[in-house]
Amino acid sequence: MKIFLDTANIDDIRTAAKLGVVDGITTNPSLVAKEGVQYKDRILEIAEVIDGPLSAECVSLEISELCEEARRVASWHPNVVVKIPMGKVGLEAISTLSSEGIKINCTLIFSVNQAFLAAKAGATFVSPFIGRLNDGGADGMILIRECATIFKNYPGISTEILAASIRGPRDVTDVALAGAHVATIPPNVLAQMIEHPLTDRGIDAFLADAKSYDPV
Ligand code: G3P
Predict the structure, then answer these.
(1) What is the average pLDDT value for the chain, to the nearest integer?
(2) DSSP-H helix ranges across the chain
(3) What is the DSSP string of 155-194?
(4) CA–CA separation, 105 vs 122, rounded Å?
(5) Is 157 exposed, middle or buried (0-12, 13-18, 19+ CB in 10 A)?
(6) How many Å is the maximal CA-CA distance in the chain?
(7) Cβ of residue 7 lying under 6 Å from some atom of ligand 1
(8) Nearest to residue 143, comparing CAs of 122, 167, 120, 162?
(9) Ligand 1, closest atom to CA 164?
(10) What are phi and psi of 200, to 5 degrees?
């Protein structure tokens, strides 16, 4: 499973990039707004740090404006994947843009049928929002599992399931078990995945014991 970082914070991206485990980046308007920067500037800055798919979201609501915006955003950098919200306009835009070779991440997916339609329209990624489903009392993992089963049933579907709205390390394990191709995770969750108290205790014990001999 690939790991994308779900953030627009350039310091967090630089820190995580050094670990060598980050395959791409996802952003959204809320994440960019927190940074107080211009969207294009930040996307180009991120592209210098991570060489992988880089999702940048479109916000136009009308079909021709949305397609125009998506073409403009896609032209910023070859790694840009245009993020388009699910819906009638979104599906039409995905069909049009994918036939032009533009890569699309269909976002705000909350049902298997939405994911299936986005895949049929030609989305490169579909983004089911696990945490937001769980917040509402549903089980986001069922959505990932069912999408994975359906996509496997139809080898013609090459769309990747990008599990989004990840809230903790266990979510990452669960989406991997459920068959997601990608998990996009916030930087704090990546940090939590690295840590374990038994690792710390083990290091302390080895360091204490290593004092009994001369290091090479
Ligand atoms: O980027 C999309 C998604 O990961 C946002 O997650 O935590 O705002 O539900 P969240």
Answers:
(1) 97
(2) 10-17, 29-35, 39-49, 63-74, 88-99, 112-121, 130-135, 140-153, 169-178, 187-194, 197-210
(3) TT--PEEEEBS--SHHHHHHHHHHT-SEEEE-HHHHHHHH
(4) 10
(5) middle
(6) 72
(7) no
(8) 162
(9) 4
(10) -60, -45
Q: What is the pLDDT of residues 151-166, one digit of tens each?
A: 999 999 999 999 999 9
Cα 98 to Cα 42: distance, rounded to the nearest angstrom: 24
Residue 36 Cα to ligand 1 midpoint, Å, equals: 18
SS3 state at 3: strand
Tell me which of 2, 34, 40, 83 is the catalytic residue.
Answer: 83
Where b means 16+ CB within 10 Å and e means fewer, 198-207 reads eeeeeeeeee
- The answer to whether the beta carbons of residues 193 and 158 sit under 8 Å apart is no
Which protein residue's CA is at the shortest distance from atom 10 of ligand 1?
165
Q: Is 83 a catalytic residue?
A: yes
pTM for the model: 0.96
The predicted structure's pLDDT at residue 215: 73
**CA 164 to ligand 1 center in whole angstroms:** 6
Give one word for 127, left, alpha or beta, with left for phi > 0 and alpha for psi -120 to 50: beta
Rounded Cα distance between 46 and 25, Å, is: 8
Protein residue closest via CA to atom 9 of ligand 1: 165
55 lines ligand 1 (CB under 6 A): no
| Cα-based angle 198, 18, 180 (whole degrees, multiple of 5) | 70
- Quick one: pLDDT at residue 2? 98
